[in-house]
Protein backbone atom coordinates (compact mmCIF):
# COMPACT_ATOMS: atom_id res chain seq x y z
CA UNK A 1 0.00 0.00 0.00
CA UNK A 2 1.43 3.39 -0.87
CA UNK A 3 2.49 5.58 2.02
CA UNK A 4 0.04 8.40 1.33
CA UNK A 5 -2.95 6.06 1.22
CA UNK A 6 -1.75 4.34 4.39
CA UNK A 7 -1.52 7.67 6.20
CA UNK A 8 -4.92 8.75 4.88
CA UNK A 9 -6.52 5.61 6.29
CA UNK A 10 -5.15 6.05 9.80
CA UNK A 11 -7.60 7.27 12.43
CA UNK A 12 -6.33 9.49 15.24
CA UNK A 13 -8.38 7.58 17.80
CA UNK A 14 -10.73 4.61 17.82
CA UNK A 15 -13.93 4.20 19.83
CA UNK A 16 -16.32 1.33 20.30
CA UNK A 17 -19.32 3.67 20.29
CA UNK A 18 -20.01 7.28 19.36
CA UNK A 19 -21.32 7.83 22.89
CA UNK A 20 -17.77 7.38 24.24
CA UNK A 21 -16.80 10.75 22.77
CA UNK A 22 -17.02 13.53 25.34
CA UNK A 23 -16.46 17.30 25.17
CA UNK A 24 -13.25 16.77 27.22
CA UNK A 25 -12.06 14.12 24.77
CA UNK A 26 -12.57 16.52 21.86
CA UNK A 27 -10.70 19.31 23.67
CA UNK A 28 -7.79 16.96 24.32
CA UNK A 29 -7.63 16.36 20.56
CA UNK A 30 -7.72 20.06 19.77
CA UNK A 31 -11.17 19.73 18.20
CA UNK A 32 -13.67 22.58 18.55
CA UNK A 33 -16.45 20.82 16.63
CA UNK A 34 -17.55 17.35 15.57
CA UNK A 35 -18.83 16.08 12.23
CA UNK A 36 -20.93 12.94 12.32
CA UNK A 37 -21.48 10.11 9.89
CA UNK A 38 -24.92 8.46 10.04
CA UNK A 39 -24.81 4.81 8.96
CA UNK A 40 -23.22 2.51 11.51
CA UNK A 41 -22.06 5.53 13.51
CA UNK A 42 -25.29 7.09 14.79
CA UNK A 43 -27.82 4.64 13.43
CA UNK A 44 -28.31 1.13 12.13
CA UNK A 45 -27.23 0.91 8.49
CA UNK A 46 -29.77 2.19 5.96
CA UNK A 47 -32.36 2.70 8.69
CA UNK A 48 -34.09 5.54 10.48
CA UNK A 49 -33.29 3.97 13.87
CA UNK A 50 -30.60 5.47 16.07
CA UNK A 51 -28.36 3.27 18.18
CA UNK A 52 -29.33 3.17 21.86
CA UNK A 53 -28.17 6.26 23.74
CA UNK A 54 -27.45 8.36 20.65
CA UNK A 55 -30.25 10.89 21.17
CA UNK A 56 -29.31 11.41 24.83
CA UNK A 57 -25.62 11.68 23.92
CA UNK A 58 -26.40 14.29 21.26
CA UNK A 59 -28.41 16.32 23.77
CA UNK A 60 -25.52 16.17 26.27
CA UNK A 61 -22.99 17.28 23.65
CA UNK A 62 -25.22 20.13 22.48
CA UNK A 63 -25.82 21.38 26.01
CA UNK A 64 -22.09 21.22 26.65
CA UNK A 65 -21.75 23.64 23.73
CA UNK A 66 -20.05 21.31 21.24
CA UNK A 67 -20.94 22.38 17.69
CA UNK A 68 -21.89 19.29 15.69
CA UNK A 69 -23.01 18.66 12.14
CA UNK A 70 -24.00 15.58 10.18
CA UNK A 71 -21.85 14.83 7.14
CA UNK A 72 -23.30 11.92 5.22
CA UNK A 73 -23.26 10.33 1.82
CA UNK A 74 -26.91 9.43 2.18
CA UNK A 75 -29.67 11.14 0.22
CA UNK A 76 -31.06 14.47 1.39
CA UNK A 77 -34.49 13.29 2.56
CA UNK A 78 -33.02 10.75 4.97
CA UNK A 79 -30.17 12.97 6.21
CA UNK A 80 -32.66 15.79 6.86
CA UNK A 81 -35.02 13.55 8.78
CA UNK A 82 -32.23 12.08 10.93
CA UNK A 83 -30.61 15.49 11.51
CA UNK A 84 -33.91 17.11 12.53
CA UNK A 85 -34.60 14.43 15.08
CA UNK A 86 -31.23 15.19 16.67
CA UNK A 87 -31.54 18.94 16.24
CA UNK A 88 -28.40 19.16 14.13
CA UNK A 89 -27.50 20.83 10.84
CA UNK A 90 -26.50 18.47 8.05
CA UNK A 91 -24.77 18.12 4.72
CA UNK A 92 -26.10 15.21 2.64
CA UNK A 93 -24.80 13.52 -0.51
CA UNK A 94 -21.33 14.54 0.61
CA UNK A 95 -19.49 12.08 -1.63
CA UNK A 96 -16.98 11.19 1.08
CA UNK A 97 -14.03 10.60 0.79
CA UNK A 98 -14.08 13.83 -1.23
CA UNK A 99 -12.65 16.53 1.03
CA UNK A 100 -15.16 19.10 -0.28
CA UNK A 101 -17.94 18.31 2.22
CA UNK A 102 -15.53 18.32 5.16
CA UNK A 103 -14.19 21.74 4.16
CA UNK A 104 -17.69 23.08 3.54
CA UNK A 105 -18.83 21.98 7.01
CA UNK A 106 -15.76 23.51 8.62
CA UNK A 107 -16.53 26.76 6.79
CA UNK A 108 -20.17 26.70 7.93
CA UNK A 109 -18.99 26.18 11.50
CA UNK A 110 -16.56 29.06 11.11
CA UNK A 111 -13.57 26.84 11.85
CA UNK A 112 -10.41 25.63 10.16
CA UNK A 113 -10.57 21.93 9.17
CA UNK A 114 -7.68 21.26 11.58
CA UNK A 115 -9.91 22.05 14.55
CA UNK A 116 -12.83 19.92 13.34
CA UNK A 117 -13.08 16.21 14.16
CA UNK A 118 -14.95 13.68 12.04
CA UNK A 119 -16.48 10.56 13.60
CA UNK A 120 -17.31 7.72 11.25
CA UNK A 121 -17.11 3.96 10.84
CA UNK A 122 -15.48 3.63 7.43
CA UNK A 123 -11.77 3.92 6.72
CA UNK A 124 -12.24 4.49 3.00
CA UNK A 125 -14.81 7.29 3.27
CA UNK A 126 -14.87 8.93 6.73
CA UNK A 127 -11.24 8.53 7.77
CA UNK A 128 -9.69 8.98 4.35
CA UNK A 129 -11.80 12.07 3.63
CA UNK A 130 -11.11 13.60 7.04
CA UNK A 131 -7.37 13.15 6.60
CA UNK A 132 -7.51 14.57 3.06
CA UNK A 133 -9.37 17.64 4.31
CA UNK A 134 -7.01 18.12 7.27
CA UNK A 135 -9.69 17.25 9.85
CA UNK A 136 -9.17 15.04 12.92
CA UNK A 137 -10.29 11.48 12.01
CA UNK A 138 -12.04 9.44 14.71
CA UNK A 139 -13.02 5.86 13.92
CA UNK A 140 -16.12 4.31 15.44
CA UNK A 141 -15.96 0.54 15.24
CA UNK A 142 -18.81 -0.73 13.07
CA UNK A 143 -21.48 -2.31 15.30
CA UNK A 144 -23.65 -4.05 12.76
CA UNK A 145 -23.43 -5.76 9.44
CA UNK A 146 -24.66 -3.63 6.57
CA UNK A 147 -27.83 -4.80 4.90
CA UNK A 148 -27.65 -2.87 1.66
CA UNK A 149 -24.87 -3.94 -0.73
CA UNK A 150 -24.04 -6.73 1.72
CA UNK A 151 -21.33 -8.42 -0.34
CA UNK A 152 -19.58 -5.17 -1.20
CA UNK A 153 -19.46 -4.22 2.46
CA UNK A 154 -18.31 -7.65 3.53
CA UNK A 155 -15.30 -7.29 1.24
CA UNK A 156 -14.65 -3.72 2.40
CA UNK A 157 -14.82 -4.66 6.09
CA UNK A 158 -12.33 -7.47 5.50
CA UNK A 159 -9.87 -5.04 3.91
CA UNK A 160 -10.40 -2.57 6.77
CA UNK A 161 -9.81 -5.27 9.40
CA UNK A 162 -6.66 -6.43 7.66
CA UNK A 163 -5.35 -2.86 7.52
CA UNK A 164 -6.14 -2.17 11.18
CA UNK A 165 -4.60 -5.50 12.21
CA UNK A 166 -1.39 -4.69 10.30
CA UNK A 167 -1.28 -1.34 12.10
CA UNK A 168 -1.86 -3.05 15.45
CA UNK A 169 -5.15 -1.22 15.85
CA UNK A 170 -7.49 -4.17 16.05
CA UNK A 171 -8.56 -5.36 19.51
CA UNK A 172 -7.47 -8.90 20.32
CA UNK A 173 -11.08 -10.01 20.58
CA UNK A 174 -11.46 -9.11 16.94
CA UNK A 175 -8.49 -10.94 15.47
CA UNK A 176 -8.60 -11.53 11.69
CA UNK A 177 -10.93 -14.35 10.65
CA UNK A 178 -8.05 -16.65 9.67
CA UNK A 179 -6.60 -16.63 13.20
CA UNK A 180 -9.94 -17.14 14.89
CA UNK A 181 -10.59 -20.13 12.71
CA UNK A 182 -7.19 -21.61 13.44
CA UNK A 183 -7.62 -21.11 17.19
CA UNK A 184 -11.07 -22.62 17.01
CA UNK A 185 -9.69 -25.72 15.29
CA UNK A 186 -6.96 -26.06 17.90
CA UNK A 187 -9.49 -25.97 20.71
CA UNK A 188 -11.57 -28.54 18.88
CA UNK A 189 -8.61 -30.90 18.66
CA UNK A 190 -7.89 -30.64 22.38
CA UNK A 191 -11.38 -31.80 23.19
CA UNK A 192 -10.98 -34.99 21.19
MG1 LIG B 1 -21.04 4.94 7.99
What does the model show?
The protein is of the alpha/beta class. The chain folds into 2 domains: 3-147, Rossmann fold; 149-192, no CATH class. 44% of the residues lie in helices and 12% in strands. The longest helix is centred in the last third of the chain and has 17 residues, at 150-166. It is globular and about 40 Å long. Residues 37, 39-41, 120-122 line the site of magnesium ion (MG). The site of magnesium ion (MG) has 7 residues, from loops.
Q: How would you spell out the order of helices and strands?
A: HEHEHEHEHEHEHH
Structural class given helices, strands, pairing? alpha/beta
Q: What separation lies between the terminal Cα atoms?
A: 42 Å
> Mean pLDDT, rounded to whole units?
89
What proportion of the residues form beta strands (DSSP E)? 5-15%
Largest sheet, in brief, is: 6 strands, parallel
List low-confidence stretches. 177-192
Tally of domains: 2
| Widest beta sheet: strand line-up | 1-6-5-2-3-4
Walk me through the topology.
Layout: H1 3-8, E1 13-15, H2 23-28, E2 33-36, H3 54-63, E3 68-71, H4 76-86, E4 90-91, H5 100-108, E5 116-120, H6 123-133, E6 136-140, H7 150-166, H8 177-191
Parallel strand pairs: 1-6, 2-3, 2-5, 3-4, 5-6
Magnesium ion binds next to loops.
Keywords, separated by commas or semicolons:
192 residues, alpha/beta, Rossmann fold, 2 domains, 6-stranded parallel beta sheet, 8 helices, 12% strand, disordered C terminus, binds magnesium ion
In short:
This protein has helices at residues 3-8, 23-28, 54-63, 76-86, 100-108, 123-133, 150-166, 177-191; strands at 13-15, 33-36, 68-71, 90-91, 116-120, 136-140.
Amino acid sequence: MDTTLREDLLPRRIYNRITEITPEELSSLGAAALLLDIDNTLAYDSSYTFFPGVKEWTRRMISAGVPMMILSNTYTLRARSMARRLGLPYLAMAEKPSSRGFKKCAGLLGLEPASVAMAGDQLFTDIRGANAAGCIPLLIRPQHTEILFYLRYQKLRKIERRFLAAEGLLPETEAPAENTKRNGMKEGNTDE
